[in-house]
Backbone:
């Protein structure tokens, strides 16, 4: 193994090695794709280091938090704000010989206003009457004066809801 240590081998080996390095360098230089990737990686890592080393002022953070809070409040306000329709105060009417009261509730899924708490009022004392349904008869009864009704065994509440909505469509209701 004397030849390894010989100056000929060392100088030849060095020459081949430096030629090999020069070839790689040339190859990378000529190959724009590879060098572009290397440049991009360099650029990104430089930016990351720059960002990580950035001196952050406390008021920047406070401003950012404030901006986020304002945006969240604004979105919630916009979502929660439901424009009341013209018929919103139409909550009482005499339909099918009875006086009815009800409330409006906005259904965000169907984006429609629903009639809720539809109640028939006692003709004697204007007290809300409750429904009696025993499977055969559908009646109203006044808890205050015990006024009792017979409505021909038919639940007319659904009809009343349809009439209310129809009145709104026809614009024949008291605002
Ligand atoms: Zn009554």
Residues:
């Amino acid at each position: 193994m004397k030849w390894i240590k010989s100056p000929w081998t060392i100088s030849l080996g060095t020459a081949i090695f430096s030629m090999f390095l020069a070839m790689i360098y040339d190859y990378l230089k000529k190959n724009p794709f590879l060098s572009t990737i290397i440049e991009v990686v360099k650029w990104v890592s430089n930016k990351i280091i720059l960002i990580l080393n950035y001196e952050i002022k406390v008021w920047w953070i406070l401003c950012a938090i404030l901006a986020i809070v304002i945006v969240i409040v604004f979105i919630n306000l916009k979502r929660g704000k439901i424009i009341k329709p013209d018929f919103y105060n139409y909550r009482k009417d005499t339909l099918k010989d009875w006086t009815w009261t009800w409330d409006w509730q906005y259904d965000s899924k169907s984006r429609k206003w629903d009639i809720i708490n539809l109640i028939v009022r006692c003709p004697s004392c204007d007290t809300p009457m409750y429904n009696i349904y025993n499977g055969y008869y559908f009646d109203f009864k006044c808890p205050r004066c015990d006024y009792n009704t017979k409505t021909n065994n038919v639940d007319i509440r659904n009809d009343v809801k349809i009439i209310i909505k129809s009145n709104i469509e026809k614009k024949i209701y008291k605002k």
